[in-house]
Amino acid sequence: MTLGGTFVLCVFALLLSSLGAAFFARGGLAAGFALEGIMLLGGLAGLVSSGISWWAALLIAGAAGMVFSALLALLQIHLKGDPVIGGIALTFLAAALAMILARLLGGVSYNRKTFEWTLNGEAVSVFLPLALAAAPLTWLLMYHTRFGLRLRLCGEERNAAENAGVRIQWTRWRGALLGGFLGGAAGVAALIALGGGWTLKQGVGGMGFLAAAAMICGQGKPWRILLYALMMAALQTGALMAVEYWPAAPQEAFRLIPFVLALGILCLKCRRNEVPGETARALGLDD
């Protein structure tokens, strides 16, 4: 895979999943610890159905992500469960389900050409225009629609939302399902970037945790998330290409670099309390 192709895949995977987490956060929910599971199950569903068409694969992947995010929403909205413990438990559940499904299917594979267009004899990834449109569309939806305003009220000013007659639970459910759809679709690109298919050892390569870091560092704001997603995608792409071109080098060290740098940035941001309000309280990051 070329450097540009890998970068586009990583940008799409990290950007869409972090924007999906932002819809959770803006509604006062936390999805960071479950993103890995959402991306994994969505990616598997998308690759299995890739023989139909690229858009069908993304829709099916998004639907799988919505099902998984519904469990997370149920846990936090109705059962008042801990988002950290619940998210980790759901990610473990996703890994177990992925292993079972992969074995039942005899492995997971796909046709790379399904996700490519041919323009003037050159192969262009279908994820490129989708990645370019993701942040602007999310910004419009979140800041220039009634749904976006109500969702942000639920997370930032719950009392004001109640006084305005907003159906808080229903609004949070819609935000969670939309976030799950984006996370599931992102999983397709994540698995392709890692070489296609799925193995128990790699999962989605920790991209769910990188996406959560991008969302928190970006304070749940689409344009800031875009900047951090691009940065982390560049780090992830560099690590993947280094492993591919220098197989004799310590692969674990290269794969670890993006997470170490993301952790450092995240620690600095959390120290300054630059985390979306309700998410900070849910994660115990406020004093």
Brief overview:
This protein has helices at residues 3-26, 35-48, 54-78, 83-104, 127-143, 146-156, 158-163, 168-193, 207-217, 222-245, 251-271, 277-283; strands at 116-119, 122-125. It is mainly alpha-helical and 287 residues long.
Indicate the CATH class: Mainly Alpha
Residues in helix, %: over 70%
Give the mean pLDDT.
84
Per the CATH scheme, the topology name is: ABC transporter involved in vitamin B12 uptake, BtuC
How many domains? The number is: 1
Topology:
Layout: H1 3-26, H2 35-48, H3 54-78, H4 83-104, E1 116-119, E2 122-125, H5 127-143, H6 146-156, H7 158-163, H8 168-193, H9 207-217, H10 222-245, H11 251-271, H12 277-283
Antiparallel strand pairs: 1-2
Helix pairs in contact: 1-5, 1-8, 1-9, 1-10, 2-3, 2-4, 2-8, 2-9, 3-4, 3-8, 5-6, 5-10, 6-8, 9-10, 9-11, 10-11
Structure description:
Helix content is 72%, strand content 3%. By secondary structure, the chain is mainly α. The chain has one domain: Orthogonal Bundle (ABC transporter involved in vitamin B12 uptake, BtuC). The longest helix has 26 residues, at 168-193. The termini are far apart.
